[in-house]
Amino acid sequence: MSNKRKILNKKQINIIIKRLCHELIENHNDFSDTVIVSLLPRGKHVARRIVNRLEQILEYKINYGELDISFYRDDLRRHSEPIIPHKMEMNVSVDEKHVVIIDDVLYTGRSVRSAIDALMPFGRPKSIELLVFVDRRLSRHLPIQPDYVGKIVDSIDSEKVVVNITNDGDDNILILKS
Amino acid sequence: MDHLSVNHLLGIKYLNKKDIDIIFNTADNFKKIINQPIKKVPSLRDVTIANLFFENSTRTKLSFEIAEKRLSADIINFASAASSVKKGESLLDTVNNILAMKVDIVVMRHPNPGASIFLSRNINASIINAGDGTHEHPTQALLDAYSIRERFGQVASKKVVIIGDILHSRVALSNIFCLKMLGAKVAVCGPLTLIPKYLDDLGVSYFSDLKEALNWCDIANVLRIQLERQDVQLFPSLREYTNVYGINSTILESLTKEITIMHPGPINRGVELTSEVADSHHSLILDQVENGVAIRMAVLYLLSNKSNE
Q: Are B212 and B303 in the same domain?
């Protein structure tokens, strides 16, 4: 039997996004040397929301790309079927830029490891930071920590954290128990 | 999530439309990768691929090799001319010996139709058919259709005429299956002696007149005359073939519209195409070669897990 627990509602999510934007501005000033890169498929919804918000606040365009990490994953041939890649939109160079990687949930840290590899063909970044909406701490397999966190969640392995943030609709964050 | 319905790529006949969509969408990603400064991904770093070429090939072999290297696979190459096949070893023995060296994927070209199908039933690795006699050449058809999709946005409803030696051509058969599956209208054109008997069953129309065919089509896929597959002479001379079915700029200029020219290579310049046409803006030939690498990377990537099963 599965049951759901809502941990954040739409209003709380909006407040967190606003807070994350201001934290980013605090560290990246005018974003002229910064590129925001979201991880496909699920990081893009959070990232688009943040980028839109930043552009509203700053009133100009921000360098933004969407990165597919399928080919760089370490579990590629451990599934019975290959991982089908997602349509990538990386029309930005990260060479000599400060990169902020955005994903929805940080769990084992393996996706972030792959993302760092996947970024390298687009140039040598000056630095890479990590922003995640939900940090499932206590479940890391690799020494990876986020620089910006929306919400810290303590959950056990059998639970699933789902971030429902889309373009329009009822945003929420759920913990699913199986 | 969507996955390929097959464990081997033996022919287009065994695929469905969804498979082709998955291959094309995956190839889109690889096309971006091969245009980056760093053209390599680590996806197949623990995969070993054997390229078995029992028949001569230049571009298909190179294209597969580059695709495999871009995916970081380990590769071994085999050409029958310099092997024990010459000493009388059977296909199954040759391949089983190679598989005993722990190979995950076999890319094979063979002069006998159905050789890759035979192999897929007898050995435990994913087989990719890189051309089996006069039967199929699936990756060529995929890259041709992919190039059409790239140039025109879609394959459906496009009119494609395949010109030349349809009877001996695996490219023609695979192309017909692939284009029909994607909703294109397909016709063939060439001397009647080079047209197979059961054309109607494939749902393909026939033009005997080159100009009429070119006026009908959006894309002309021009094939090479395969003299090496002809046991008997099926047309009087190459010169006569060129006079009747060769494409030159005069005939292209006399058409009512602009058409796109494709050719699977190698081109016999001055026979089926003049140099002027082959190098003109009408030609998609070099796009085809580039897309060939992306398509082959996609196929290898998508089949790489299947060899575990």
A: no
